[in-house]
Each structure stands twice: as structure tokens, then as C-alpha cells.
Amino acid sequence: MQDGTQGYVSHEGCDHVFFIGFLGAGKSTLARNLGRLFHRPYVDTDTLVERDLHSTVARIFAEQGEPAFRDAETQALRRLESESSLLVSCGGGIVERPENAVLMHRMGTIVYLKGDLDDSLRQIRHPEKRPDLGDRSHAALVFSRRQPLYVGCCDLTVSITGRTFSEVADATASLLWEKGLL
User: What pLDDT is recorded for position 161?
Assistant: First the structure.
């Protein structure tokens, strides 16, 4: 159904597109840029949690611990059920809870931005804002734990390896357009 006042196609029910992937995969930038390009609203689950808990992700991890952050992340995800046609950038660890994959599948399509550890680490400009990253060896452990979770819950995969951000954005937009999701 076309909603002329907002300028984007809105489907019946919950039809979000969720972007998952490791830290630094470009999920937030992609959701924001595709949102602007296709006139679709976009949100970032980390930002929603920060607003809900009135703190930064790093501070939440340090003061309340990862379980408190993950609880707030799941609550933020649940609230998206009352919305429609969102492009959602998910925190890298959202797949750590199986419940979150169930919620995302119920609400829409999950797109995995797949790259290797070096692809992600190369893009991270502020590692201090990534409390679950740690040093390279810890990041490698987290990456290896999450990789099968991303693969197991995604509906679509877009490779980021060897591509510029523009190439990833073009490939993602084409794939989503082709599937009738944009």
C-alpha cells in the first residue's frame, strides 16, 4: 500500500528489515542511508537501549553488566512489533539470545552483513565504545561464537568482503528491491 504522505511503501503488518552482523559491519550506516534513499524510517537497537537506560552502551556494560544490556535490547526489539516498515540496525550481539531471532523473524526479514573479522575490525573507529569487542584475541572468540548464530537466523546474506560501503549499499538495495522489501 502506498502512503503518499510519507513517501515509502508500507505493507500490511510488521515488515521490518533487520540488519545483523559483527561489530563494524556497517549496519547502522546502511540502515540510515537506505532509509534516507527509500524514505523508510530507520532505528538502531543500541540507540534505543541507550535512550531507555539513559546511558551509553559502554557505561551500561561497565555499570550494569551485559545481561542488563541484553534484557533492555530484547525489550526494545519487542516494542518494534507495534511499528511497520522499519529498517533496523541491530547490535552485533542481538543474536546471542535465541528469543531475539524469533522476534525478528516474526516482524520481518533478517539480512546478515557477512564479512570476516578483519573486515569488521578495519571499520571500527572507536573501539572504546564497543565493550564486547576487547582485544583482537577476544574479538576473534566473540566473532567465532556469533558467526554461526548470524548464519543460522538470517533470511538473506550480503557479503561485505572486498567491497566498499557504496558497493555493499548498492548490493543490499538491489537485493531488497528485488525481494519486494523496499
Answer: 92
